[in-house]
Write a structure and sequence with these properties.
Helix 4 (about 140-155) crosses helix 5. The chain contains twelve helices and 18 strands. With about 350 residues, the chain is of the alpha/beta class. The strands form four sheets. Strands 3, 5, 6, 9, 10, 17 and 18 form a seven-stranded mixed beta sheet that branches. It has a six-stranded parallel beta sheet with strand order 13-12-11-14-15-16, sandwiched between helices. A three-stranded antiparallel beta sheet has the order 2-1-4, covered by helices on one side.
Length: about 350
């Protein structure tokens, strides 16, 4: 089969690889249809991922069709599916508590093991969700949107809550969309005028332009000095995360959607004075995938605006390398495989 392989940082190539064999019991062989390109994929290409062994076939935002199934799999051959790329052990304390998204030994397709920028992959059947009428092109967008949907669910936000999403990249936009779907009153903050223009003009969000004034001043002005009830940081930037504590209202909640490699510090007296809640959010659960898929079917998610770039498997080595640096106009790129 054909596969796009990141041989080493900066080196992408289309290679011939052995096709996966027959699936073992409980697994299925999936013919890949579409793969979204994620910020993680760009980081792998750029050599910025701290826990990755090269060479690696990337790709974890996946849709496809069941091509063959192992014993004990209820899905039908030919069934269109959404792939949950987080492979959990099923035995650790997180899995036992119904949180496989933060399994102690989690393996993510395209990161800890080879992913879906190829013709076929083997996946545990428990990680395959029927598309139920969703197009395979749209199904490939479910995973990245589920990250934001999970963060919103973790926040326990109530309708009308004054909400700030920091970071207007794909994850931040997804978080903002599902915050709005949950009835929250959403504003977005970013340093990029272009991305804020997209959020405002294309998606209808109120915006705070961090390139024109200090974020603390913008937040103070937007909230009458009170801060936001809910703040989501989706920047992946250490300084932004640390600054976000100051944007939260007394009694409010800060949700860390993105991950940074550095330690985070904050003022404990200020934290206690506000009786803040600090929430970590990692990956997503099946309930989040289902919520996203239903929202797409209901027309609540404007995927036609979010997916700005498309390519084929053969052209991915050239296009992914280019898009890693040419960000203007890029929100979400999708590879058409099948």
């Amino acid at each position: 089969m054909k596969a796009v392989v990141c041989r080493s940082p900066g080196d992408l190539a289309l290679e011939d690889r052995a096709a996966p064999g027959a699936p073992p019991p409980g697994w299925a062989r999936v013919a890949v249809s579409h793969v979204g390109i994620c910020g993680t994929d760009y980081h792998i290409f750029e050599g910025k991922h701290p826990f990755l062994a090269y060479p690696r076939i990337m790709g974890h935002e996946v849709s496809g069709t069941v091509a063959e199934k192992g014993d004990g799999v209820d899905l039908a051959v030919g069934e269109p599916v959404i792939v949950n790329p987080y492979l959990a052990c099923g035995r650790c304390i997180a899995c036992r508590h119904g949180k496989p998204n933060c399994c102690m030994t989690i393996e993510v397709l395209g990161v800890h093991r080879n992913g879906a920028m190829c013709d076929e992959i083997l996946v545990p059947a428990q990680n395959l969700y029927p598309a139920n009428g969703l197009s395979l092109a749209d199904a490939a967008a479910v995973e990245f949107l589920a990250i934001g949907a999970h963060a919103v669910r973790r926040s326990l936000g109530t309708p009308g809550a004054r909400t700030l999403v920091i970071g207007a990249g794909p994850i931040g936009l997804g978080t903002a969309l599902f915050a709005r779907i949950a009835g929250l009153d959403v504003s977005m903050l970013d340093m990029s005028t272009e991305r804020l223009g997209f959020a405002e003009d294309k998606l209808g969000f109120a915006t705070l332009d961090g390139s024109k004034a200090a974020a603390t001043e913008l937040v103070r002005s937007a909230t009458g000095g009170e801060g936001f009830d809910l703040v989501f940081d989706a920047t992946g930037n250490t300084q932004s995360v640390q600054s976000a504590f100051a944007h939260v209202a007394h009694g409010g909640t800060l949700v860390l959607v993105s991950v940074v490699k550095d330690d985070i510090s904050f003022s404990d007296p200020e934290f206690h004075k506000r009786e803040m809640t600090l929430v970590g959010s990692r990956n997503a659960l099946r309930a989040d995938f289902n919520h996203v898929a239903a929202s797409i079917r209901d027309g609540a998610v404007p995927l036609e605006k979010l997916v700005t770039h498309r390519t084929t498997l053969a052209e991915t080595p050239r296009d992914l390398a280019r898009w890693a640096y040419e960000k203007s106009g890029l929100i979400k790129a999708v590879i058409e495989v099948g």
